[in-house]
Amino acid sequence: MEYVTVADDLKFSKVIAGTMRASSEGLSGSKMADFVDRCLDTGVTTFDHADIYGYYESSRLFGEAVLQDHPALRDKLQIVTKFNIILPRKENGYAHYYDSSVQHLNESLNKSLEVLHTDYVDVLLIHRLDPLLDPEELAEGLDSLIKQGKVRHIGISNASYTYFEMVSKYVKTPLVTNQIEVNPLYTDTFFNGVMDSALIHKIPLMAWSPLAGGKLFHPETGQQFRVREILRQMAEKYGADSIDKIAYAFINKLPATICPIVGSTKFERIQSAIDAQSIRLTNKDWFKILEVSRGREVL
Prior knowledge:
The protein has about 300 residues and is α/β, with parallel strands linked by helices. The protein has helices at about 30-40, 55, 60-65, 100-115, 135-150, 160-170, 195-200, 220-240, 245-250, 265-275, 285-295, and strands at about 5, 10-15, 15-20, 45-50, 80-85, 85, 95-100, 120-125, 150-155, 175-180, 205-210, 260.
């Protein structure tokens, strides 16, 4: 397993285990504990959470199955979580919106710490671009959490180049990552400045939906069918037994350091991401995949 330096006192495993589907896939109790054990055994030490995942259930399942009974494991893993999305619930009139206030920041983080059975998170991310975010107020709130020891580092998710720069100007602690969508179907982030920003700030990126939410396996559109076919051809060429390994290799080829988040709790998907670290696509083959995805020739 490769490891990525996020800060002087923090490293991520190159492959990150995502917990978004833990609740919907029934990963609780011994199943969750076994999944985490298998991850740790193969060197996957970083786990991606958000307060809302599993409709506010996934982090609780993780905490109860892992850290509640085995608190010593906390020093062996890194926890990333997020805040500011409010999902529709009875108590808020079934409204769906963002809340980046300090009050919600504290409420969300304290609840995450409680259900995860930990005193701190390694990285806290601002989940979505909130047009109502007050950067000065939020910066003070984040700085306070760091001083309290509840948060070690902060980052952002789904941030454009300009949004990342704006938040960076206000926070006292440097942002250590940006979690963005990257996959062979969605290549906008190669050209919209997000990759450039990561290289300028010398930070690793976290890639959510590296397999396009399963669309690479179950295509419905022309683009999806085309990309699945070129990935199949490349898998044959590189001796890979599954197209997902080529999808991960496509991401790994980028010059910015990118840690793919495996959203599935099926361990074979984790293993594919690990195996893909040894696949080195040529420039010609990488651009062929890009060309097929975009539906036009490279100029």
